[in-house]
């Protein structure tokens, strides 16, 4: 994009917002062109989001309709991924589960990101006793192996979709607290932060208007990584019976339900939900790699 | 001297963490759904019976007093009584902990044996087929949910090929367990020179250990590769090469030592991951360790059992991280003992 284009779009001093956006996207677009794997990851994620949103359009059967006559049928043109022991269509269940799993992942990571980043930023900027206390709390949460803490908390709160979101957010929030705090600690001494202070801006305004926007890129990489962990943890908890409850279609629950039929040869009950988890996480991981390339070229591998 | 001060400081920092951990464990269990009192007395209990059990369990006392009683008990090795096994929790854990530790350790060893060479080779021979395989392994490894890859391994190696034993327990039913010394089957059968039991235990533990290792292999391969690549581009490696040292010496003596430092810091995290993953893996492979025990406790609304497992696993995790930090301080002279 050159200056000539800006002029063609109208005001030379203030290029059209689309042009500005395009300029911002130029570098990421360059990275994606050079690294098609990232594009693949991005495509997979977008595809799964679409499948989740438009699940009724993709599904061929009712995901919870029981039909004993069709029980345990192998994959066919009628039932693409076969049927389970109640005669429910595995393909339609996998499709609807996309909605459930992505919803859990997005909302838990969103919750952890928001709370963790805000707390971490405040703690990093103001330091003092509250910072000290918050960091000890973070230490305590991180003293637990994540899945063990998730399991203990999920057991305490009881199974259910809302609780699993809180639990997965709880084990991830400390990561954002530490990240945001560290970033703010290193940026708050910069000249532009001083300048903002001298102009009489309030503390929160400096933190959220000036400092935090500059700290977001590394945190964004973490978000992509954490989305994949969130799906693994949520599916894992549901697998051991602490998460989403049957008959709601969810990948972990489906694998658990299919487990007992695997050794009588009905592998499709386990394979397809697993493949769905695998591809989703694969996509998030590739996306995280790509974002890392964009924001932190040092770590490119 | 400074190292000693650092170690002391690090040890002192563990105390507030452990107090916090114990508090969380206590608090978690106080909000568990379903009251164990009703679970114990059964559905036909009278008001008096319920009140009596509440007093027996100490539920009538104020929360802070219950916490102090709990801490006092923990200090004396009393983790409460597990109703679903009719045994003290401490005894249950003593029986089951060794298997989990064994499983986590084996999987960690497999991880390091596979991942470090793979990462090093792929960094040294960038763009070669080994590199491509390593990168694929790294992404695929971390993308597979353990409870799925474990089931697939069972399907392939037990159901289809018949190479692996059925996923039930850590020994064949017909083989007598070696006398208990450490509680770890492999170590015990080695001590007793019982090769039959040793072979059987290996064949039962290998698949779960691989299941647990797969995601760890992914992340460590990746880490070794990027850290090795960074070191290979550093000034001192270039200097060493310029001095005419053989490439082999430069890579395996000079570069590798520094490249492995970040991997050392990861060992603590990995162990925590393995302990958490053990819950899923033990459940799939029918192993009676801490994982399946905590699962059983949760399903039976057994306060004390869950509390005991979460507390103990957290303590183990804290200690391992402490050891890792100290080891790191000793082997990396650059660390500021802050």
Molecular structure report:
- The complex is a heterodimer of chains A (301) and B (338).
- Chain A has twelve helices and no strands.
- Helices cover 74% and strands 0% of the residues of chain A.
- Mean pLDDT of chain A is 84; it is low at 1-12.
- Chain A has 301 residues and is an all-alpha fold.
- Chain B has 338 residues and is an all-alpha fold.
- Helices cover 75% and strands 1% of the residues of chain B.
- Chain B has a two-stranded antiparallel sheet.
- In chain B, helix 5 crosses helix 12 (261-285), helix 6 (129-143) crosses helix 9 and helix 12 (261-285) runs antiparallel to helix 14.
- Chain B is globular, with a radius of gyration of 24 Å.
- The model of chain B has no long low-confidence stretch (mean pLDDT 84).
- At the A-B interface, helix 6, helix 7, helix 10, helix 11 and helix 12 of A face helix 1, helix 6, helix 7, helix 9 and helix 12 of B.
Summary tags:
heterodimer, A: 301 residues, mainly alpha, 12 helices, 74% helix, disordered N terminus, B: 338 residues, two-stranded antiparallel sheet, 14 helices
What is the element string of chain A, with H for helices and E for strands? HHHHHHHHHHHH
Main β sheet profile of chain A: none
Structural class of chain B: mainly alpha
Write down the Rg of chain B: 24 Å
* Low-confidence residue ranges of chain A: 1-12
Mean pLDDT of chain B: 84
Structural category of chain A is mainly alpha
Question: How far do the termini of chain B sit from each other?
Answer: 14 Å
Q: What's the end-to-end separation of chain A, in Å?
A: 29 Å
- Main sheet makeup of chain B: 2 strands, antiparallel
Question: How many helical stretches of chain A?
Answer: 12
Quaternary state of this entry equals heterodimer
Count of helical stretches of chain B: 14
Give the strand order of the largest sheet of chain B, numbering strands 1, 2, ... along the chain.
1-2
Helix percent of chain A reads over 70%
């Amino acid at each position: 994009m050159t200056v000539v284009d800006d002029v063609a779009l109208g005001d030379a001093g203030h290029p059209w917002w689309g042009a500005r956006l395009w300029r911002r996207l130029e570098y990421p677009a360059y990275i994606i062109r050079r690294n098609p794997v990232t594009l693949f990851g991005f495509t997979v994620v977008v595809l799964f989001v679409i499948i989740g949103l438009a699940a009724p359009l993709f599904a061929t059967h009712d995901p919870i309709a029981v039909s004993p006559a069709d029980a345990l049928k192998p994959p066919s043109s009628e039932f693409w991924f076969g049927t389970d022991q109640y005669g429910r269509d595995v393909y339609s269940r996998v499709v609807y589960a996309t909605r459930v799993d992505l919803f859990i992942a997005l909302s838990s990571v969103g919750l952890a990101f928001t709370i963790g980043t805000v707390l971490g930023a405040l703690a990093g900027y103001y330091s003092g006793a509250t910072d000290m206390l918050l960091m000890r709390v973070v230490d305590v949460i991180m003293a637990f192996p994540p899945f063990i803490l998730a399991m203990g908390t999920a057991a305490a709160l009881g199974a259910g979709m809302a609780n699993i979101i809180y639990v997965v957010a709880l084990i991830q929030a400390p990561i954002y607290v530490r990240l945001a705090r560290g970033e703010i600690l290193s940026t708050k001494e910069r000249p532009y932060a001083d300048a903002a202070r001298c102009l009489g801006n309030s503390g929160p305004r400096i933190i959220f208007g000036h400092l935090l926007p500059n700290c977001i890129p590394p945190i964004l990489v973490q978000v992509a990584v954490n989305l994949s962990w969130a799906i693994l943890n949520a599916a894992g908890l549901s697998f051991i019976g602490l998460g989403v409850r049957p008959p709601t279609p969810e990948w972990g629950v489906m694998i658990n339900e299919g487990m007992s039929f695997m050794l009588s040869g009905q592998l499709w009950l386990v394979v397809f939900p697993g493949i769905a988890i695998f591809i989703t996480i694969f996509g998030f991981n590739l996306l995280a790699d790509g974002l890392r390339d964009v924001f932190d070229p040092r770590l490119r591998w | 001297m400074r190292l000693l001060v650092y170690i002391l400081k690090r040890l002192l920092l563990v105390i507030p963490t452990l107090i916090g951990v114990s508090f969380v464990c206590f608090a978690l269990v106080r909000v568990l759904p379903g009251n164990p009192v009703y679970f114990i007395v059964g559905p036909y209990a009278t008001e008096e019976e319920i009140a009596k059990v509440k007093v027996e369990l100490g539920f009538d006392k104020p929360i802070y007093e219950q916490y102090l009683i709990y801490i006092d008990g923990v200090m004396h090795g009393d983790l409460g009584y597990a109703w679903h096994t009719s045994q003290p929790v401490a005894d249950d854990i003593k029986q089951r902990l060794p298997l989990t530790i064994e499983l986590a350790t084996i999987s960690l060893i497999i991880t390091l044996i596979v991942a470090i060479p793979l990462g090093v080779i792929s960094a040294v021979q960038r763009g070669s087929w080994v590199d491509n395989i390593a990168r694929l392994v790294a992404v695929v490894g971390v993308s597979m949910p353990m409870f799925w890859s474990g089931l697939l391994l069972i399907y392939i190696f037990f159901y289809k090929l018949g190479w692996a034993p059925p996923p039930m327990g850590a020994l064949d039913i017909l083989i007598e367990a070696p006398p208990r010394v450490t509680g770890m089957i492999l170590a015990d059968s080695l001590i007793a020179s019982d090769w039959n039991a040793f072979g059987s235990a290996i064949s039962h533990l290998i698949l779960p250990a691989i299941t647990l290792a797969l995601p760890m292999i992914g992340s460590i391969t990746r880490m070794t590769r990027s850290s090795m690549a960074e070191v290979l581009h550093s000034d001192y490696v270039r200097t060493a090469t310029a001095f005419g040292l053989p490439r082999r010496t430069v890579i395996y003596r000079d570069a590798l030592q520094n490249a492995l430092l970040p991997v050392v810091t990861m060992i603590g995290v990995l162990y925590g991951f393995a302990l958490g993953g053990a819950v899923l893996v033990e459940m799939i492979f029918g192993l009676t360790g801490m994982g399946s025990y905590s699962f059983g406790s949760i399903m039976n609304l057994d306060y004390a059992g869950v509390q005991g497992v979460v507390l103990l696993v957290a303590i183990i995790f804290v200690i391992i991280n402490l050891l890792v930090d100290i080891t790191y301080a000793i082997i990396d002279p650059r660390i500021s003992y802050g």
